[in-house]
Structures are given as structure tokens and as C-alpha cells.
Amino acid sequence: GNTGEVTFNIYGGGFNEETSIQLTNSTFPILMPDTTIFMDTDHFIARFNMYDKPVGEYIIELTLNEEFLYASTDTFKLQVGEFPEPWADITSRKAFLANTWHTLTITYGNQGNVDAIGVPLWLAISNNEDMEIEFVDFEIVPSQYVIEDGYEEYYNNDPFVEIDTVMDEAFNAKILGLYIPLIPANSNQSINLKVKSRESYRTITWMSKPYFHSSYNTDESMLNNKSGSYKYGSDSPYGWVGLASCWITIVTEIVVDATLGAIPGVGCVNSIASNYFDFWGYDRYRSKKKKTVGQSALTAGLVIAECVANVSGLGVVQKAITVTASNILNHSTAESCKDLNPIDKKDSDIKKVASFDPNEKVGPSGYGENNFIRSTDFLDYTVYFENKNSATAPAHTIIVSDTLDTEIFDLSKTEIKSVTVGDTTIYALPGSKTLVKSATIEHLNVDARFVVETDESTGSLNCVIRSFDPDTGEEIEDPFVGVLPPNVNSPEGEGSVSFRLYLKEEPQHNQEIKNMAIIYFDGNEPIITNEYINTFDLQAPETRIDSYTEDGTITLNISGTDSGSGIDYYEIWMAKGAEGFDLWKTSKENAVEFRSTETNNYKFYSIGIDYLGNKEEAPDVADVNLFATDLNIIAIGEQIKYYPNPATNKVNIEIDLKVAQIADIYISNLNGQYVKCLSNILLPQGKTTLNENLEGIPNGMYLLNIQVENQLFSDLFLIQNE
């Protein structure tokens, strides 16, 4: 796309620091990359700024030491730019043996035609006692700017944060908040975790919208990186996210706890976050063999800590990290946080079993029993196989055959991803339709040869793994030497093959895609895997606020239906007087209580969002019109209420006593200093309303303290004087 940067990964052989790439077009000068990163002799990366370049076809040319090396036979097509479309999926077996290691694979990508810059990726997993988790092929690292500010030590701590609520749902979990600095256009990647647990567990994965977007023609941005070129603008379909305002909203709990003693400023948060999350700050890790990612929750906490006055000590910073991570998932109701709502949320239960068939096929992780997924033009599958620990000999030849429905899948586009035996994994180059490779497994004294290819004439995908003698090159005849021994010490007897299948046509709502595979070990009887089923959910819910009741407060009653994965939550939009509609609240409940902040006319409508993120269109007219008086009353005990909050110029305190009593009322700042005191007030029996003047008190957060006899009532409230 011609509205941002595009990253090329070039694979081959004989590359060095002098290898370069350029794009040529008959009507446009040669384009050179802004950045070139030499990875190894068989791989380098080039990043081009394609903003406002002419659409059309370009030839890719490579040079080595300024001498022409190669020109592509296929052209690179530059299109009208779109916005990035990040997605995520989690793949794993649906069952495991207690206290044995098993793998979770998180695949993520970007279907847009410009790079996705700075994408948060989240994993929530049950907080089981004695659960162990290891990162297999990636590591979490700080950006250059975090290191420069002296926070590198925090990346040595446990990256998981324990919480009890995820997206307003009770869930005893621990959260891993990752930060993917760059997902190139039209690409996908994966990371692997190993898990050992004594009990069944649940996982939820999702992404948030990119923190940056390379739309150069915008004036506002959510975050600006050091180059100043990546913006998140008002003309973006995502709109102005207001990340700084959102984070300040979610750290209110910190202030209430009085651990930090101040509220961070919007300007500071935006400035520090722009540095700490700047994806250029991760380029120093590009040459690492393992994937490197940041940590979104930790980094957000460090931003807040850096922007709060009088910060000192590990405890204060750790408090900022914990509260920020814990709350960032549960504040989508705030207007400034609405664009942090999950993208591609995947919810899966992994069951502990006493025994299970280790030969299994898994595909895209969907929602519910029907495995609902959103619209896509491809599906990723993995076939797992295992030589059980009770076997008496290793497997010499392994064949995995998957007969595919050619009415549904376009076999000409099939992509091979990887093959694994034991702890050896062979990766195919991106977009490969075949894989032919050998690997010597030294501790087995076996030369394993892998062939994976699609036979379009028979409609099948076949993976063949054979055992050869590394010295003679002949197939091994010894029955006790082979590529896949009995699985006595996991994962030596385990293997898998992963591939991507493309659909011929756009999927239809509630269409089912079914697939299974057959596994052969030498001359043994074939093993037929489970049939893996996905169901497409392409339609949004239909909802409305169909009534309201008024009994001191106003209750909005919401009804709705969904023909797929089901309604996850509602957005309630409100217009006050002649103003336009704004998002007022999100709720999982069908009844929502409303207290007006001022006497006025109010209009409401609802929007339903299902468990896959399909979102209902806004209606043309409001569902409900009503007139409401000021009912913003906050109870801080059975006897005491006050309103409004936030308070402007005055606060009204309502005290209801069974007998006449002495009361003390005082307002203090968060450092404990009194700014207003009313002592030894004799209040009569019954209800008394005090109207306290707040003029002259600086704007900010304060504690309202009311002592009646031996009882103390306190609450945090905000003063916003005009």
C-alpha cells in the first residue's frame, strides 16, 4: 500500500552487509530502502517508505557490492494504501496429560497492505497452582529508550501479572501483555510457549489496534515515534485513541491507594510512551536468532511510573506496573479507552485427561463448541503425531496425508509452514508450496529427510519423513534406529506438520469447514485423526433498548439476538440535549442504570458486539428518548450520599440520621492536607442536605471524609471548577 512503510524479507544465499535491494518502475525513479538490516548470509530485511508513491508494478532488483545480482521475474504490485489489519490465533491440542509439557502456538499477522506498527498482543491463562510456562522461540526485551532510562532490570521479573477480572468477566488468570513492534504487510508469524499444568485451564488471546499508523498526512497521532513519521490520525478509521488519557483513567486505583501520590499528566504520558513504545527502539535486536518482542503491560506501567512525581523504589514502580496491567483490560467503557477493545479474541479450554489419542488435527481456535471464527481467506492447520511410550521400536517412515475438499480449498495456493520431529523443527520459506529438506539428528544417528507437497490431481497434501544412515546415505534397516523413537522422554517421540489452506470463495455465514488427516507409521494400520470443524460467524448481533423503568433512578432494558457466537457485550450510546451521540457505557448486562448529571433530554441506542468482535451498525434513530433530572448521587454508606462527582463549584452532601448527632466533614488532598473543614456540626434527626462551596480549591482528586460519632466515611472525588 502507498500510505505507509512496507517491509521486505529477502531469502537466498551469499548475502553480506553490502547486499542491497531496489525497486524499479518504467515511469518512476529507482526506489531505495530507508533501512536495510543484514540478518545472516541467507536473509536480510529492507524497509521502504511507500507513502504517496505511484501505484503500479515494480521490478525487485538485488545488488551485491554495487554490482547487479538478480531481478525478480514476478513484479511487486503497489496498491492504494489501506489500514493495517492485525489478527491473532492460538493453536494447541485440546487435551493434555497432567503435569506433562505441551505446546501453545500463537500465530499473528497483518492482512493490510501496509505495516502494522506497535501492536499489543495479549494472552490470559488460568492462574493454576504450580503451572509452569516457558518461552520456546522468543524473548521479551526492553526498547532502547527504556534501557536509557534505567528500567531494564524490570524485564528480568515474571512477565505475567495476576488478575481476577478480564474484560469485565470474573477470571482468576495471569496476563502476558506482549508488544509486537512491527508486523509487515500481508505477513504472518508465530511464537511458541510450553505449558505444564496439573489441572485443566483456559486461555484467551486477542490483539489491540496498533499504537502507530504510518499515515503521513494526518495532524494528530496516538503516539509519535522518534522519526515523527508514524501517526495515528483523525482520518484513520480507528480515530484518535487518546492512549495517554486512557492510561490515566485506568490508574485511578493507584491514586486511591495513595501509593504514588499524584496523577500523571497527559502530556508526560504521551511523550514518554512515544519513546518507550517507539518501534525503532527495537531494531537493535533484529539480528537475534530468536524472535524479540516487547511487553505492553510492563512498558505501560513504566510510562505511568516515570510520569508520577516523587517516584522512588521498586515497590512504587511495581505497583504502577501491576495496577496498569490489571486495569487496562477492564476499562473499555471509558471513551478514551474504547479503541483498546479486543481484536480477534479467541477463547479456548484445554482439558486435563488421563489418556488421549496423541495423533490429532487442530485448526483455527474459535469460540464455543461450534468453533466460530470470523471471515478469512485462509485456515492454518497442524497435524500432531506421536510414537507412544509403550511402542517397542522407533518409527522409520512417517506419512501424514490430508485429503482436501477441492470445492472449498484452492490447492494452488497451499503454503507449507513447518515440520517437527522431537526437538528438531524445519521451517519452510514464507509462501512455499513444497518443502524438501534433510536434517541430521545426531543423538539418534539419523539423517531425517522431509518432503511436504500438495498433489492437485488427487486433492491431497502429503508429508513424508524417512530415516537415512548419515554415513552411507542409505535407508536405515536397523529396526531399533529411526527418526521417531518411543516417546519415553517427551518430546523425543512427538512430531507435527503445519500448513495453510486458502479458500476458493468467500465464506458464508454459519458455513462449516471440516477437515481430518490420516497418519501412517511404517507398515502399521493407518491412524485417522479427529475431524476438526470451524464455523464462520459473519453477522453482527441485532439489539435495541426496548424499554426503560423509572424508580428514583432510570433503568435501560436491552434486548438482542445473535445467530452465531452470541452477544458478548453492549455499547450504549447517549446524546444529551442537542448534542451528538457519544459512547456512554459498555455492559454485559441487559439492564443498565442511568443517573443524569444534569436535568435535560436524553436519547439512547445500543450496539451489540459478539464474541468474535462482529459489531452492529448504529441505528438511524435513537431507541429511547427520555427526560431526566439530576440524579448523580453517590452512596458511601447507608446514611450518607453526595453529588455530583466530578463536582463543579459545589458538592451536595446528604446525611440521613436516626437520631441527632455531631458530624465532622473535611476535604483533603492526596497528601493528607485539609483544604476544607466543617467541625462539630450538630445535625438533626432525619435527612439533612449540606451544600458546600468548592470555589478557590484547585482542580484535582480529593478525599471527602465524613465522621459521624465513631464512624468514618471516605470516598475519592474529582473537583473540576470552572
Description:
- This protein has 722 residues and is mainly beta.
- The chain is built from 6 helices and 49 strands.
- Strands 10, 12, 14, 15, 16, 18, 19 and 20 form an 8-stranded mixed β-sheet that branches. Strands 27-28-29-24-32-33 form a 6-stranded antiparallel β-sheet, with no helix packed on it. Strands 2, 3, 6, 7 and 8 form a 5-stranded antiparallel β-sheet that branches.
- Strand 42 (634-635) and strand 43 (640-648) form a beta hairpin.
Radius of gyration: 30 Å
How much of the sequence lies in strands comes to over 45%
Low-confidence stretches: 214-242, 252-261, 310-314
Total strands: the figure is: 49
Q: Helix- and strand-based class?
A: mainly beta
Largest sheet, described in full?
Answer: 8 strands, mixed
DSSP helix count?
A: 6
**Shape designation:** elongated
Distance N to C terminus: 47 Å
Q: Share of helix among residues?
A: under 10%
Instruction: Provide the residue-averaged pLDDT.
Output: 82
